[in-house]
Amino acid sequence: MHNLDAAAFYNKWIRDMWGAQNPETGYVPNGAPWQPGCGGGVAWGAAMNIMPWEFYVHYGDRDLLAGNYDAMKEQIRFMQNWVGDDGVMLMQTPNQWMNLGDWCPAFDFPPAEMVHTFYLWRCADYTARAAEALGKTDDAKAYRELADRTAAAFHKRFYDPQKGTYGRYGGNIFALRIGVPDEYRDRVVASLRQDILDNGGHLDTGIFGTQFFFEVLAENGLGELAYEAMNKRDYPSFGHWIDQGATTTWEQWNGENSRNHPMFGGSLTWFYRKLAGLNADPSQPGYRHIVFRPQPVSQIDWAKYATATPYGQASVDWSKRGGRFTMTVEVPVGCTATVCVPDAKAPSAVRTDGTGKKDGNIVYNGMKDDYAEYTVRSGKYTFTVE
User: Fold this and answer.
1) Which of 15, 53, 119, 371 can bridge 340 by disulfide, Cβ–Cβ 3.0-4.6 Å?
2) Around 216, how many Cα atoms within 13 Å sit in the side-chain half-sphere?
3) Is the Cβ–Cβ distance between 20 and 29 less than 8 Å?
4) Residue 82, C-beta contacts closer than 8 angstroms, at least 6 positions apart
C-alpha cells in the first residue's frame, strides 16, 4: 500500500479471508482462499483483524472496515478459547503447523506463547480502534479493556526483572511495540541495544519480529542501529540476499526454501514512515491529515518519498548539506499536515517558504523533543534549519 494502488487487490483478498472464516468457531485459517497445505498459526489468522484496519488507515475506506468488523470480532472470540487464567495465549491443536509462533528466525525462536499473546493484544487493539472509528462505544471499551489486560499479562509473564529484558529473538521488540511500563522501559531499551551490539549489529528476528524491528528501534532512540542493521551485507540481512543475486525477498535468511516469499517485506515501512517520515494519521485516515516526522541518521545525507493518496500526491524530501537541513513537504488539496522539523533547537533557527505560505497556512505549535512542530494546510512548503 505504500508503493502501489493496492485497493482492489486488498478488497478482494480481505473478502477471501472472511469467506474462509469458520462461521461456527470464528477461526480464520492460515491461507485464503483456504487450501490444506498452508502452515501458520495465530499471527496468520490475525490478518482478519490487521488488514481491515490498515486498509482503513491507508485508504480511508470506512465501508470496508464496517463490512469486516463482525469478522474481526469473531476471530477474537476464537482466540480467547486459548487464553489461560493468567491472560496468556497459547494455541495448541494436534497439528503443529497450525500453532506456529514466529517463523524463519535468523537464529532461534522466541516462545510461541509470547508471540500468540502479542497477536491477541494486537487484534484486540485494532478491533478497539475499529469500534471507536465506527461509533461502537461499548465494543470499543470492551476491546480496549481486553487489549490492556493482555498487555498486562504479557509484561507479567515475559519480563525478567533481574535482567531487565523480555529476551532476545524479538522479545524486547514485541514488548516495546505493545508499550513497556515507564518504570523499566529504559532498561528494556538498553537490553535491546546490547543484544544488537552483541550480534554484530544484525537483527536476530523471524518474520514477525523483523516486521517491527526497524521501526521500534527508531521509536526508541536507536535509529542509528536500525540503519546499521538495514545496511548490513553479511548474514543475516537484506544486503546478504542482494549480494547473492536476490531480486525478491526469500523465505529464509539462509536462502533455503522459497526464493519469492514476501513475508519479510513488512519491515521496509521503516524507509517511508521513519527515515523519510511520511505517516498517515489514523484519526483522519486516508492521509486526510499527514504527519511528517523524518528521523535522519548520520550516514545518510538525503531521503525522499512520495505516495499517491486518495486526495493526490503527498511527498517529503529532506537533505543535509553544508551544515543546513532542508525539508520540503507536499500536502494534497483538502488535507492538512503536522510537520515536525528535526534538529531545530529553537523556532528562530527554522526558516519557512513555499507555494502554500500564506497567512494562517503555517502555524507554529511549539518545540517537542528537538523537533519544531507546525500545522500546515494544503500546498508545498520548505523548512530550513541552519
Assistant:
1) 371
2) 27
3) yes
4) 42, 89, 90, 91, 92, 116
Q: What is the mean pLDDT of the chain?
A: 95
C-alpha cell at 317: 524530501
Gap between the Cα atoms of 297 and 319, Å rounded:
11
pTM above 0.90, yes or no: yes
Query: What does the pLDDT look like over 154-212, one tens digit per residue?
Result: 999 999 999 999 999 999 999 999 999 999 999 999 999 999 999 999 999 999 999 99
Q: Using an 8 Å Cβ cutoff, are 251 and 257 in contact?
A: yes
Q: CA distances (Å), 208 to each of 73, 93, 125, 136, 291, in order?
A: 22, 21, 17, 30, 25
The residue written with cell numbers 535509529 in the block is: 223
Residue with cell 500546498: 379
Asked if the bond preceding 294 is cis, omega within 30° of 0, the reply is no
CA-to-CA distance for 233 and 52, rounded, in angstroms?
35
State the DSSP string of 27-80: ---SSSS--TT---BHHHHTHHHHHHHHHHHHH--HHHHHHHHHHHHHHHHHHG
